[in-house]
# Entry
Amino acid sequence: MTDEDIIRRRLMFDGDGTGEDRRLNDFLKNISKWLRTDHKTEEDGLIMFDSITAQLEFVKHSRRLAHLRRRQINKELQMYANLYDAMQSRINERKDEIETQKISLKNSKIIKHNQMQYSMLTKSMNQETPRTESLKYLDCLHSDIKDIEAQKEEVEEGLNDRRKLFKVLSLAANNLQELLSKEETDGGGRVTQKRK
# Structure
């Protein structure tokens, strides 16, 4: 038997590290000693027997303690496992809440941006004159343009009439000038005397 096998066997006997293997060895030695010895008096045998039963009770007691300890450890392990599962589920819930909050934050940013654009559009639209007033103003402008065009035509007709009159007047003045110059050349003496 190798040292490793001996250590493994000792660990199997004394799995919890309570020293039970030593107690069991002492208990077995005492039993074999009690069986091998020749008790001179019954009292010596009873003392040894009481010692063996006390050791047996102590071993039973330590086994019960180890069993209770193991049960308590298992309960605590189960409690910690349940606590871990509860914490993990809470963490997952919080992660889901964070994701939904991120999505709602993104949506609220989009909504806020759209509201700002809408308010800017409404401000610019409110600064402009209403459509009905613009149409009335356009109608007034069209009627003013028609009036101005009519006035322009009247002025152009008046100008044409005056041009014609001016031409007639200019022709009459030219004719008169020619006539006067002919008269001067024909009867120069009289004209010069009149002028003087």
Remarks:
- Residues 191-196 have pLDDT under 50 and may be disordered.
- The radius of gyration is 67 Å.
- The helical segments are 3-13, 20-36, 42-127, 131-186, 188-195.
- Residues 162 and 168 are 9 Å apart (CA to CA).
